[in-house]
Write the C-alpha cells for this entry.
Amino acid sequence: MSEPLFVIVAILTLGGGLGVVATRNVVHAALFLLLSLVSVAGIYLLVFAEFLALVQVLIYGGAIIIVLIFAIMLTRSQEYPRISDNPQWPLAIVAGLAVFGVLAASFLWNLPPASEPEGPGLAKIGESLFTKWAVPFEVVSLVLLVALVGAIIIAGRAGDRE
Amino acid sequence: MPVDFDFRWAAIIVSGIIGFIAIAIMFGASMFISSRRRSEIKLTSYECGIEAAPFRWSQINIRYYIFAILFLIFDVEAVFLFPWAVIFIGNKIAFYAMLIFLAVLGFAILYGWRKGVLQWSK
C-alpha cells in the first residue's frame, strides 16, 4: 500500500517543483511551491516522521508561503505581472544539477541499512530535545529573538521611507 | 512494508478519498446546475461599488509583512510546544527549559510592543 502512495506523493512533489519553475505567473509559482511542500509532508508521513510532517505543514505550508505571498504583493508586481525570461537560466541549471549531484552522491555513499520505517514519536523527541539538547534549544529562542528584532528594525526603516 | 502500515493510515486514506469525492461532487454540481450569463462586468473584482483601484494588484503596506514575520516566528515557537506538551509532567528540566524559551520570546513580543509594531497607525 505504501509503494503506490509514495509514487503519488513523489509525483506531486516533483510536479509542484516543476510547476514553480515552469509557470510564468509569480503567484501561481507560490501556489505550486505550496503543493510541493505539502507533498513533502506526505513523504515524511510515509516514513512515520509525524513530527517532521507537522512542522512541514505548519511552518512551510502555512507560515513560509504566507510570507512569500506577502513578499510578492509587496513588490511592484503590477508592473511585471508576468516573469520575463531570465538570462541566468543556464547558470541555474548548472547550480541545480550540482546541488542534486552532491546530495545524491552523499546519500548513495552513506546508504542507510534497509529497515522498516519506525518513527520515534513525539514523546521521545521531546525527551531528548528538552534534556539532552536543552541548551541548543534555548539558543533557538535567541535566534528567533534576533530574527524578530532584525525584521522590526528593517521593516521600520522601510516604513519610514514611504 | 509491515502490515501495520495499512492499518495506521487506512483511516486517513479513506477520509482523504471521501474528501476528494465530496469536493469533486460540489464543484461538479455547481458546474452543471449554475446558469452562466457571461458579461464584462462579471470579470471585475466587485460587481457593484467603486471600480477597483488602478491595478489588479496594488502594493500592500509593509506593515502586513511585519505581521507575517511575527506569525512565522511564533509559529516556529508553537511547533516546539507539541513535543513539550506530551512530556512536561514529571520532567522538571523540560518544564523549566520551555519556560525560559517562552520568556525569551515573551521579551520579543514586549520589544515589538514597545517599538509600536503591534499598533496599526503610528
